[in-house]
Amino acid sequence: MDRDALLQYRHSKDWEQEADRFRLPNFTYPAYYQTQAFHGITQGYLNPDAAVTYDPVTKYVLPPNEEWVRQGLIDRIRCRPRRILDLGCGTGSMTLRLKQAFPNAEVVGLDLSPYMLVVADEKATQAKLDIQFQQGNAEQTGFPDASFDLVTASLLFHETPPAVSCRILQECFRLLSVGGEVLILDGNQSTLRWADWLTEIFEEPYIKDYAAGSVDAWMGAAGFESIRTEDVFWTNQVTRGMKPLPRSFVMVEPEASTIAEQWAMG
Ligand SMILES: C[S@@+](CC[C@H](N)C(=O)[O-])C[C@H]1O[C@@H](n2cnc3c(N)ncnc32)[C@H](O)[C@@H]1O
After folding, report:
1. Does 254 reside within a domain?
2. Is 52 in the pocket of ligand 1 (CB under 6 A)?
3. What CATH number should be reported for the domain holding residue 160?
4. Which of 82, 110, 253, 259 has its CA 20 to 30 A from that of 156?
């Protein structure tokens, strides 16, 4: 990591002024978020240092390499989305890839941290990609029901307590139209369960609880169907689910025997 380049970037802008472009008035941060020093940074993502260091560090912690892991999510998208929401978008690394994969889609990136959004917006501008970045809580986004056909979250759930991840999945369900997809990319829960040393390396307050849980089960509890988790290398996983038709709309096919009986009775 080039320390001088990082320092130069840190001092290249007035972070408070830039962050004001994204800060919502009277915005309340969830308690699990503002009390923790994620990655050992005081105040976690509510410190511009988190935004400055995020990309240079992330490229070393996603084996075999960041491109491969992120492409693991893109490759598992089955729909042709028109409206995409990337929750906990951070510095936008996945959001930009989503827009590149689906250039005609409207893409929104949502995050609690205004500093992460400053970096995300800057990266999108440099790449000439039209993406809307905004501050918000993934548990309660404020978007209307059924307003997206693809919702993603990458590297978010290992940083949220499981109860919060479950509420985020309920919100994804509400936000998706019928047939819409949710894709969650994160650490591989089975690997993290036996590789304790991995959970010790990173200063992540909720990663052990994440490892003990199951994104599959959380997604099922939120109402999703056709749920499937696949390994991305042995360190990461992508879980995909689909929003089904409401039960009241599902046509029940008459049993073949019933049809035969009706024929027999004339
Ligand atoms: C590890 S970063 C992942 C960033 C990005 N998705 C990526 O793939 O690199 C986690 C991000 O989730 C954000 N976050 C955590 N809880 C959130 C919530 N409830 N709503 C929105 N963003 C949240 C943090 O601010 C942080 O930017």
Report:
1. no
2. no
3. 3.40.50.150
4. 82
